[in-house]
C-alpha cells in the first residue's frame, strides 16, 4: 500500500487531480447545455418559463423542455444534467437563467462595440411604455463596417423615469459611458416626430447638437410620409368620412367568426367561378385564401392593404351584408347592414375607394423604397420628387 502511494500515477495528489479534472469537464458539459438552450431561445425570441414547471407537468416551459430534448439525444449531457446533476447545482433555476442571459447581453454588447471600433456612428432612439407601464428607451446604432456595409445593431433598452429631453439625454450619456462611446463620435440622430425628441429649442436632438454640431438629425422619411398622409386625410372631410365607413364595414363584416367564415365561403365560390370562366389566371401561389384586413391608424400604409382586400372581395362583402340585413339577430344589425350595403355601392364611395387605392399605392411604393437598407438621402429626395409629380 505504501509503495503504491509512492508511485506518481497512484498518489493521492494525482488521484485528487483526476477527480477535479473530471468534475470540471462534467460541469462544463452541464453548463454548455444550459447556455446552448438559452442562446437558442434568445435568438428565436421565445419565452423561457412555463406556467407549470413541476415534475408532473406535461409542458414545463421552453427552457426545460429544450434541455430535456438535448438530454434525450446526447448521452454525455444526460449523464450530468437534470436528474443526474447535483441537487444544489442543477443550473435550471430562473436566477441562473437570468444570469446567463445577462452574460449573453454583455458579450453581445462587447462584440458590437469591438465591431464598431473607433468609427463614427449614428443613433436611433425611440421611447415606449411596456406592459407594466414603465417608460423605456430603445437604442440602436448605425455605422459602416470595414467592408463598407451599413450595419444596424440594437444596443439595449434603458429605463427612464420620464420622457423629457433632459432625462433621455442623461440616459443616452449613461449608456454611452457604460459602453465606452462618446458623443464626439456621433454623426447622426434618428427619432420620431415628438416634440421632446426633435424640438427646435429643448428637444433631445438640440441638446446633443449643442455638444456636437456634427450629430445631424434626420427625421425618418417613411415616418414623415405617414404623418403627411394622416394629416391630409383628416383635414379632408369626405376622405375622413370614407375611411370611417371603411372601418365600419370591416367591423361589421368581420364582427364574428360566423361572418368571417361566410365571407371566406362566398369569396372561395366566386374565385372558383372566375377561374372556371377564365376571368382569373390559375397557378401555384395564385388565388390564395384571404380575409378583409383591418387598418391601423399608427401605420397609415396598412390602409392600402385594407383597400386592396376591400376591392378584391367587394362582391362577396355585398353578399355578406345582404345576408346580415336579412338574417341579422336584431333590427339594428339588419338596418346597419342594409345601410352599409347601399352606401358602399354608391358612386361616391366607389370613386373614393379607387382614388385612395391609387394614391396610397404610389405612397406605399415610396414608403417601401424609403425603408430599404441601401437607400441614401440623395436618392430618397429624388424618389419623393418623382412621387409628387
From TrEMBL:
Any Pfam family: DUF4371
Domain DUF4371: 3-203
Name of the protein this chain belongs to: DUF4371 domain-containing protein
UniProt organism field: Fagus sylvatica
Highest classification ranks of the organism: Eukaryota, Viridiplantae, Streptophyta, Embryophyta, Tracheophyta
Amino acid at each position: 500500500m505504501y509503495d503504491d502511494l509512492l508511485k506518481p500515477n497512484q498518489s493521492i495528489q494525482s488521484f485528487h487531480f483526476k477527480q477535479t479534472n473530471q468534475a470540471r469537464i462534467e460541469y462544463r458539459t452541464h453548463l454548455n447545455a444550459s447556455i446552448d438552450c438559452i442562446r437558442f431561445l434568445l435568438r428565436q425570441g421565445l419565452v423561457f418559463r412555463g406556467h407549470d414547471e413541476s415534475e408532473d407537468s406535461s409542458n414545463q416551459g421552453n427552457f426545460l423542455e429544450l434541455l430535456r430534448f438535448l438530454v434525450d439525444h446526447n448521452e454525455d449531457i444526460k449523464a450530468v444534467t437534470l436528474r443526474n446533476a447535483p441537487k444544489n447545482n442543477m443550473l435550471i433555476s430562473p436566477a441562473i437563467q437570468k444570469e446567463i442571459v445577462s452574460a449573453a447581453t454583455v458579450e453581445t454588447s462587447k462584440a458590437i462595440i469591438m465591431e464598431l471600433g473607433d468609427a463614427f456612428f449614428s443613433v436611433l432612439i425611440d421611447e415606449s411604455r411596456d406592459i407594466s407601464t414603465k417608460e423605456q428607451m430603445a437604442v440602436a446604432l448605425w455605422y459602416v463596417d470595414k467592408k463598407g456595409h451599413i450595419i444596424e445593431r440594437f444596443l439595449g433598452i434603458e429605463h427612464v423615469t420620464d420622457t423629457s429631453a433632459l432625462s433621455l439625454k442623461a440616459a443616452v450619456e449613461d449608456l454611452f459611458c457604460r459602453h465606452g462611446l462618446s458623443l464626439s463620435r456621433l454623426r447622426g440622430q434618428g427619432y420620431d416626430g415628438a416634440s421632446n425628441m426633435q424640438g427646435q429649442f429643448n428637444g433631445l436632438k438640440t441638446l446633443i447638437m449643442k455638444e456636437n454640431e456634427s450629430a445631424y438629425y434626420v427625421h425618418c422619411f417613411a415616418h414623415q410620409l405617414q404623418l403627411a398622409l394622416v394629416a391630409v386625410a383628416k383635414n379632408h372631410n369626405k376622405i375622413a368620412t370614407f375611411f370611417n365607413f371603411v372601418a365600419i364595414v370591416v367591423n361589421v363584416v368581420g364582427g364574428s367568426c360566423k361572418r368571417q367564415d361566410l365571407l371566406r365561403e362566398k369569396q372561395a365560390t366566386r374565385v372558383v367561378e372566375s377561374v372556371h370562366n377564365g376571368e382569373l389566371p390559375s397557378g401555384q401561389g395564385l388565388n390564395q385564401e384571404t380575409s378583409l384586413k383591418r387598418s391601423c391608424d399608427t401605420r397609415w400604409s396598412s390602409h392600402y392593404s385594407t383597400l386592396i382586400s376591400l376591392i378584391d372581395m367587394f362582391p362577396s362583402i355585398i353578399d355578406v351584408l345582404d345576408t346580415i340585413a336579412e338574417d341579422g339577430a336584431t333590427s339594428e344589425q339588419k338596418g346597419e347592414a342594409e345601410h352599409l350595403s347601399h352606401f358602399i355601392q354608391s358612386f361616391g364611395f366607389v370613386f373614393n375607394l379607387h382614388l385612395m387605392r391609387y394614391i396610397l399605392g404610389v405612397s406605399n411604393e415610396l414608403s417601401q423604397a424609403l425603408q430599404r437598407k441601401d437607400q441614401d438621402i440623395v436618392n430618397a429626395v429624388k424618389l419623393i420628387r418623382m412621387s409628387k409629380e
